[in-house]
Design a protein that fits this description.
Oligomer: single chain
Helix content: 55-70%
Largest sheet: 2 strands, antiparallel
Order of helices and strands: HHEHEHHHEHEHH
Number of strands: 4
Shape: globular
Strand order of the largest sheet: 1-4
Number of domains: 1
Distance between the termini: 51 Å
Number of helices: 9
Amino acid sequence: MGNQIDNLLYHYSYPVLFGLTVIYFSILYFGVGSLFLEVCKFLEKRNIIHKIATKQIPKDQLSFEIRHSIQSILVFGLSVIPIIYLVRIEVIQLLPNNFLNITLGLIILTLWNEVHFYAIHRLMHQKFMMKHIHHIHHKSTVPTVFSVYSFHWIEACLLSTVPLTIVPFIPFSIFAVFIYPTVSILLNFAGHCNYRFGSGKGDSWWLFGTTHHEHHSRGRRNYGFALNFLDRLFSKPNK
C-alpha cells in the first residue's frame, strides 16, 4: 500500500491524476448519489424519514443538474494538480496514514469546510455573484441529490479549494485528504435530498434536509454547509 501511495504522489503524470480524480468524483456523484437516494426511498416507505416537498421534480431540472455537475466534476479533477505539485516540492508536509491521523484530518477538514463554504456561499449571495454565477445552483428550488454539484464553473473552482487553503499550513495524512470528498458529498446529499432528517421543527444543527431545503426555496438564510453555528453567529434574525 505504501508503494502504491508513493507511486500516486510522486510518479503518476498529471493527466492521469486528473483522470483518476474525475473518475473518483463521478463515482461519488452518480454511484453513491443514486444509492443514497434509494436508501432515502427505503426509509421513507418505513416512515423513518419524510419528503419535504412532494411535488414532482421536472425531468429538465435533473438534466440541467447533471449537465452542470459534469462540468463541476471536471473542475474538481483539476483541483488535485496543485495539491500533488505542492507535495512533490515539499511545501505540503504529510503525516503517516494511521487511524488517528486520518480521523483527526477528517475532523479538521470537516470543520474547515464549514468556514470555507460559509465564506464562499455568502460571497455567492452578493447581488452580482447571485445574478451571474450562483443562480445556476438555485435553479433547483426543490433540491435533489443531483443538485449537489450543480454549479457555475467559477463557483465550482472556488469550492474546490477547500484542501488547498489548509493543507499547506497544517500537516495531514494524505488518506484524509483523499477520503474527505466522500464525507463531504454524503453531507451534501443529506442537505439536498429533499428528505427531512429529524422532526423538521426548531433550529437544530443536525436538521440538514430541512435547513438547506429552506435555503433553496427562499434563496436566503441557512448559508452554512452542514452545521449552522456560523449562521447563528453572523446572520441577523429573520433574514
